[in-house]
Specification:
The structure is a single chain. This protein is an alpha/beta fold. Helix 8 packs across helix 9 and helix 11 crosses helix 13. Helices cover 42% and strands 16% of the residues. The strands form 6 sheets. The protein has a 6-stranded mixed sheet, with helices on both faces. It has a 6-stranded mixed sheet with strand order 17-18-16-19-20-21, with helices on both faces.
Length: 631
Amino acid sequence: MKSHIRIIVVGDAGTGKSSLIATYMELLSGDGTFPEKVPRVLQPVAITPEDTQNKVFAEVVDTASDEIETLHEEYRHGDVVMLLYECDNKDHIARLTNHWLPDIMNFVGEAVPVVLVGTKIDLRGPDFLHTTTLVNEIMPIINNPQFRCIETCIELSSRALVNVYEAFSFAQSAVLHPTGPVYDASTEKLTQPCVAALTCIFRQCDVDRDGVLSDEELQGFQAKCFGARLQDTELDGVKKVVQEAEADGIRNGCLTLVGFLFLHKLFIQRGRVETTWRVLRTFGYEDDLSLREDYDLPVQKSSSQSIELTEEAAQFLLDRFREYDKDRDGALSQDELNAVFEAGGHPWGRDFPLWAVTNEKGFLTEKGWHAQWNMTALLDAKAVCHHLTLMGFRDVSDALSVTRKRKLDRKKKRVTRHVFRGFVLGAPGSGKTAFLCSHIHKSLPEKRTGQDQPLSVANQVEVDGEEYTLVLTEFPQKLVVPTLSSKETMDGCDLVVMTFARTDPTSFSYAVDLFNEVPRNVPVVFVATKSDLVPCAGEEESRAPDEFCERLGLPLPVEVSTTSPDKLKKVCSMLAAVALNPSVALPDSRKKKRTGGRILRTLLIGGAVGVIGYLGWRYLFKGGDPPPKKP
């Protein structure tokens, strides 16, 4: 909310602009008299918070109607325009629509609200408070959709000291509590963004998720927004008003969403729009009804820790998936996704769900939904907090947890995380993007946007009967070296997948150069792509990758091909197994020469995955001979 408001006073000559400002200042000083003589144009005057109803600094700027360039400049620097016209002066009223309002709209559009101020009502005589002109001539202007910049209107008399203070309060409220973003006067309905925001707030207050607000939940809402609980008689009165106006507003003595929205429409229609704004701002909404994103994360982590969803948040998201899966097909269509994210869009970019796990129709599956949120918690925890709030999660401080440091995991020889991140590196053309596509069971798309940015995909994988999320990230070539040289970034990496094409000997040389830049505490798995194609190199060159890995005690390269999707699925499970037991793929691990290679090959041939400790790995091939060595 703004703490300083700049009020620009405009209108035709003779409408009483300077007199109005001077009278307002007299009222603030306690004098309470109408100044008979005032300059043609006053200098800007400052109003302290103590003298304003909303406790903000205000600056009031007088203008001359014939100084066009100055007027236009003031429009741009103003927060609100008070547009004066002389009541019952048809020429002045006509110029509102054929000059002043179009001129304001032309320079600032709807960005600056306008308060129409009818002056000199005392000239009507004793019955100067009648509102015939206001109703017959001004209200049609206000309701004209062409002039949505108009916030409200008021009639006053500076000489009679009527509504002077109120006019400036209206101007401040037009900035602090604007009607336009929350209510459409032409349809007499709440705006769609306002409905979406209030729906999210309703869900947050519905602690037991039964679709209504009980008396206790309503009192909690009241105390949070206004600092006090309602008396029982007041609460009953509120529900009675709702019941009489909306048949579906009360259910079993509890307030429904329909009733909640009705109350806010009623507040606005009765001139209490500040009540709705207080609710919105209490729950973190900005003036444009976007959710404020400058809040601190409820958890803090070091670079070697990860952020994961709590069970409560994961269950909440699963419930939302099933709630919006209207056709019960186990997937969310585009329309169903739009309904989920009606309040603020999804956090996954314009190509979504191209790079997510979908069914044959391209609809996001339940596993894909779960994996996407786990990946978002890992990569952008603030986005998770933001969107959980939009979806009505009660308290984001209960949504995230921080994992143990990776160094401590290695020391205790037990990984406690359930979401792992692998960096997929390699030469251009070595099949990195295709490998990411295989992880989410998709073919390589014909076109890809955002190739200058990292690409991350996520899917659920199973290891020893337990599900984990594996996030694989490919970097554009220009970011590979900076990524490898960033300690903070590499601290968050669970393993590196180094791809090279069997069809291109230079591809492996490129991979070796990258390997030499990888920190030695990060496990590395070499993946030989395009293994279904005939190698262009001779036997000696084709054995070079195997010999390199053997010499460093690394697992032998894993052979993959996009023509073998079942094998690719096992490869991703194996990568998660490496993340769970990183010692098997660390360079210079020579305790059991070639053990790593045997383990990975056994995993891929037998389809089994063992993870807990070195003994667990050996058990996989304890009963039989390991795979034969390559010739």
